Amino acid sequence: MAILSQDEAQAILKKVISFSTADECEVTLNGETGGNVRSARNSISTSGAVDNVSLVVESRFGKRSGVATCNEFDDATLRRCVQRAEEIARLAPESPEYMPLLGPQQYSAAPQAFAKSTAGITPDYRAQQVGASMKICDEKKLSSAAFLNDEAGFVAKRNSKGLEAYQQITNLEFSITVRTPDGTGSGYATADYNDSSKFDAAALTRTAADKAAMSRNAKALEPGKYTVILEPAALVANSDASLLQALMGALDARNADEGRSFLSKKGGGNKKGEKLFDERVTIYSDPTMPEVATLTFSGDGRPQKKTTWIEKGVVKNLYTSRFWAQKAGIPDLPRPSGWVMEGGTQSLQDMIKGTAKGILVTRLWYIRPVDPQTLLYTGLTRDGTFYIENGKIKHPVKNFRFNESPIIMLNNLEAIGKPVRVGGNLVPPLKIRDFTFTSLSDAV
Amino acid sequence: MKRREFVGLTGLATGALFLPSIPGLASSPVDPARLLEAVDPAIKKRLADAALNAAKSAGASYADVRIGRYLNQSIFTREKQVQNIASGESYGAGVRVIANGTWGFAATNTVTEAGMAKAAQLAVQIAKANAKVQKDQVKLAPQKGYGEVSWKTPIEKNSFEVPVKEKVDLLLAANAKALDNGASFVNSALFQINEQKYFASTDGSYIDQDIHRIWPTFGVTAIDRASGKFRTREGLSAPMGLGYEYLTPKAADRINGPVGTGLIGYRNSYDMLEDAALAAKQAKEKLTAKSVVPGKYDLVLDPNHLGLTIHESIGHATELDRVLGYEANYAGTSFATLEWKAKNAPYGSKLVNIVADKTQPGSLGAVGYDDEGVKTGQWDIIKEGRLVDYQKTRDQAHIVNQDHSDGCSYSQSWQDVQFQRMANISLLPGKEKLSVDEMISKVDKGIYIAGRGSFSIDQQRYNSQFGGTVFYAIEKGKIAGMLEDVAYQTNTVEFWNSCAAICDQSDYRLFGSFFDGKGQPSQVSAVSHGSSTTRFNGVNVINTARKIG
C-alpha cells in the first residue's frame, strides 16, 4: 500500500482527525516504495527493496504538543495513536515558541516531480542497467563500483484548521566509480532524475571509464593557489556535504540574527541586502521547475514558492522558522529542498578551452566545516583531477586537500558554465581563481 | 536517509538543528509508553520461520531474517526551553537470501507470517534477477547454529524508563550552568537508542538481543558582538553503550586533565553540569586566544580527541570491504591493501598496538552476536606497529583464506541490508607508568588537543586533517595558554610512526562515534575507540583563520 492516491490518503487523515479531542491536530502520511542495487569489482554486491507507510499525529492543547505514530491503519490502531499523542501533549511543557497550526494553503503544482516510469521499476530493470554498466567495464578491463537507487513516495497532510496537502514524488539516483586494475586511475560519474526514462547507466559508465583511463599515473604539483574548474559534482554531492550545500545551509535568519553565522553583522543584525559574492552569482529555488521538480510544501505545511536567495551577488532572502519570522518581523520562508544556480551557455569543454593554466576537478570529497565564522571547509579532490594548459587537458595530477570557503570561492569567479542537475539541484560548472590547495594526497 | 542529514547533527553549537525527526535512523515519533512493550521471542520465532521456509521454498540456498524494533528518543533543548522531544519506533523485518549464488534482500513493515513470506519471496526474486548478470558466487564462511540464545547490553538503568521530565531537567540544568558562566547560547541534546533485534537463519540460530546506547551532548557559543566574533565549545562526553547510569557522575570516573587547563576526562560516567560550566568559560576564553603559528609541533592528544583519529586512519582503513574495493564508489578504498600488508611495512611505531573488540563493556560496538549470527570476540589489528589483520564478515573471510567471520556485520534497521561495519578499534595503553602531566613535562614545543573538531580524510585514508574542541600551547614542558585556529594535516603512516609515548591504563577512556556513516544507501552505526593520552612528534599544524568581506 506504499503509494496511496490523494483520495485514499485524505480519507485516512480525515478519519484520524475525527478521532481527535485536542485543541489542534495535524496528521501526516508518508509512504515510499523502491529498491536499490550496489555493485563492486564488476559484480553485484548487495541489493534490496523497501516498502513502508507511516502516520504521524500531532495533538495540541494550548501551547503543549504531543506526537505519536503508527503504521497499521485499522480504526482501533488509529484511535489509539490519537489518544497517545493527546496523552503526551497533556504532559509536555508549554512551548514559548508555539505557533498556531496553519489554515488552508495554496500549493503550486509540480507534475514533473512524479514519473510513472520510475514508480514502475522492477528488480529486472535494475539488474539490466547495472549489468550493462558492468559489461562495459569488463570489456575495457576496468573495475567498477556503482549504486542505483530508485524510490516512489507520497506525502499527505491535513489538520484541524483546514490545511490539506498531497503530493507524489519519484527519484532515481546512479553513481559509479571506475578504477584501473593497477589502482593508479579512478573516474567518477553521477546523475539523478525524477523520470527514469532519461537514465542511461551505460553512458555514465563510459564517462567514468574514460576518466579512470585518463587519470593513470598522475603527476604531483606543489600545493598552493590554483585556477580550478569545478564540475557540478564537485560543487554539490548527492549524498555528502558539499561547498554549495554548505553555503545554502548557512542562510538561516535566526543564526544570522543571533550573531553566530557568516551572515551576522558586527554590532548586531544580519547582512541581508549586502553584496557578498560576484555579481554573476544568482541562486533561487523553484519546486515546480520541470528539471528539478520536488515537493511544493515544507514539513510544517508552508508552501514552497519560487524564492530568490542570492541575486547578482546580493543576499536577498534568508529562510526561517515560523516563530522567528514572526518575532523578527521578516518574510516567512521555509528552507528550500532544492535550488538552482543560474549559469551561462558554456559547456565544460568550452571552459577548458578558455583556460591557459588550471586544474579540472571531477569530485570533492569528505568536506567538513573548519570555521563557521568564515564558512571555511576542508576536503579533497578525487576520481579525476587533471592539469589544463593552453585550453587542453595536459595530464592527470595527484589529488589535493583544499581549505576554502564558498564565500571566498564565489568572489573569485572567473566563468560559469551551463547548469546540470545534481542531487535535485541545478548546478553549473564554475571556474574559480586562487582556489586554496594546502597539501597533497597519495590517494587514487 | 542521506549522509548529509546526520553529518550536521553533531554540530550542536551551530544551532543548525533541523527537527523534528532524528536524522540517520529510519523511524517516526512514538510515545514513551510504547517503548517498553517487548515482543515475545516465541512470536518472533514463528514469524522468522515463516520467512526462512518461504525463502527455501522459493529456491534460496541460505536465508536470514532480522525482526527488529528500533527505538530511539531524542531530547533537544536550547537555553531555557525544550525544542523538541522525539520518541521514535520502527518495527519491521528484513529478509536476506542467497539464491543462484547471489544476494537478495527485501524488507517489510507487515510483520505477519504472510508479510514475512512475501518479503522472502521478493528477496529471492531480486537475487535471481541479479544472478543473471553475476559472475562470482557468494561464499559464506561456515557458521554453526546456536539454537535459541539471547544477549543484553549490561545496563544498570534503562534510559527509556527514566521519566522525560527528569531528562529535560538535566539538560536545562546543564544549559543554566553554561549561561551562568557566560555562554551567549547553549544547545543540548540527549540521544537514546534501544535495538530489540531478533536474528534467525537457515543455519539454525535464533538470537534475541537487547542493545542500548546513550549520548548526552551540548554545544556552547560565546559571542563578542562588537567584533562580530563567535566561538563554540562542544561537550566532552562520549556516546556509550550504557544506560542512564552514565549520567550519574562518580568520582572514580573523573580523570584530571593537564595542570593549567582545568579539563576533566570522564570514563564510565559523565558530569554534564560540571562540563557545561567549564565549556562556557572556555568558549569565552577562545574569543581572545592566541592564533596558532603554523609549523611542526609535538602533539599531545587526549583520548576524547584521538578516538576520532584512530577511527578515521585505522578503523576505516582496516575494513576488509574497503580494502577489496566494495566501497570504492562512496566511502572509498584503503591504502592498507593485501599487497601493502604483505610487505610488512610499519603502520606505526613499535608502541602502537591496536585491537578490535566487539565485547568491551560500555562500548558502543558491544553485542553478543553480529547481524549475521556470528558470536563476537576480540582480535589484533596492529601489533607493535605492524598490520596483522582486518575486520571481516562471513562472505569476505574466504578472500583472505580465513575460515571464520570476525562478527562485523551490522544494519542500522530492519529495512536496510546488513554489511561490514567497524568493530570497536582501540589503542592499547602504554605498559610503563606515565601520567599526562609527566608526558607534557618532556615536550619542548607542542600543542595539547582535547575533544573532536573538524575531521576529513581522503578516500584511501592517507591524508587527513583534524581540528579539535580546545587547544593549549605547550612550552618547555608546561601548558602555556589557549590557542585557536589549529588543525593538523598528516599522512596516516607518518603520523602513527611518529607516536612517541602513550600514557598508562589509568588514563584510558572510550571515545565514541554515534552516527558513523558508510554504504549506499548510507547507514549509520555506532562505535567506540579507547586510548590513553598519546604523544606524536613533529606533526604539521596549519592556521585555519581566514578573512571574509
CATH topology of the largest domain in chain A: PmbA/TldD fold
- Domains of chain A, number: 2
- The shape of chain B, in one word, is globular
**How much β-strand is present in the residues of chain A?**
35-45%
CATH C-level label of the largest domain in chain B: Alpha Beta
Q: Please, how many domains of chain B?
A: 2
Q: Biggest β-sheet of chain B, characterized?
A: 10 strands, mixed
The helical percent of chain B reads 10-25%
Total of helices of chain A: 11
Look at the structure and give the mean pLDDT of chain A. 96
Termini separation of chain A (Å)? 45 Å
The counted number of beta strands of chain A is 19
- Number of E-state strands of chain B: 28
Distance between the termini of chain B: 35 Å
Radius of gyration of chain B: 24 Å
CATH architecture annotation of the largest domain in chain B: 2-Layer Sandwich
Query: What do we call the CATH homologous superfamily of the largest domain in chain A?
Result: PmbA/TldD superfamily
Spans of chain B of 5+ residues with little confidence (pLDDT < 50)?
1-31
Helix proportion of chain A: 10-25%
Family (chain A): Belongs to the peptidase U62 family.
Organism (chain A): Hymenobacter duratus
Domain Metalloprotease TldD/E N-terminal (chain A): 25-89
InterPro entries (chain A): Metalloprtase-TldD/E_C, Metalloprtase-TldD/E_cen_dom, Metalloprtase-TldD/E_N, TldD/PmbA_N, TldD/PmbA_sf
